[in-house]
Amino acid sequence: MSGPHLVFVAGATGYVGRAVIPRLLARGHAVRALARRGSAARVPAGCEIVLGDALKKESFAGSVASCDSFLQLVGVAHPSPSKAEQFRTVDLASARASAEAAAQAGVRHFVYVSVAQPAPAMKAYVKARAEGESAIRALGLNATFVRPWYVLGPGHRWPYLLLPGYWIAERLPLIRKMARRIGLVTLAQMAEALVRAVERPPDGIRIVEVPEIRRARLD
Hints:
Structural class: alpha/beta
Shape: globular
CATH architecture: 3-Layer(aba) Sandwich
CATH class: Alpha Beta
Distance between the termini: 14 Å
Helix content: 25-40%
Strand content: 15-25%
Number of strands: 9
Number of domains: 1
CATH topology: Rossmann fold
Strand order of the largest sheet: 3-2-1-4-5-6-9
Oligomer: single chain
CATH superfamily: NAD(P)-binding Rossmann-like Domain
Largest sheet: 7 strands, parallel
């Protein structure tokens, strides 16, 4: 850790945002949190709140300038195949807006919650997140792409039923690599991996996949 960071967080009121922000604050970092006017009360205490729309760069870009890190967490809640259009109009659109704002402000490190890829399901979701990664690369940002598949936690527990199947799949040579890539992680593991990503900015692009998220280790 090179010292306290000033982190701009888009998606501060979401499932992952409300888990990672308290950890950032507890580690001594400052957080500038983007929120819509009607949801500002849901931002964890201790943040500087920026009122704006994650889909409209001009509504928040002016508040990014002094930040050295940008954490992009915006996404449709409870992704499913029925939300394919929203993956483009919300997930991808917000990633592009955030990356452009970060690049214009000279942010040193962009952290993007992407998704495990390639994957055998959720093709529209994976495609939108992959395009988000491509947009970030095209802007020349130093970035960390964190690629979970499913994040277990409050309100997101049904995949625990799949754990026996994962245990078997991770031991079968033909599908072991895929099973590990699309394995399950906990909300606590995800939050810790994101904090560590902020604290260890890379030169260029770094990809953090499920096994590294589980260990909260960044190689």
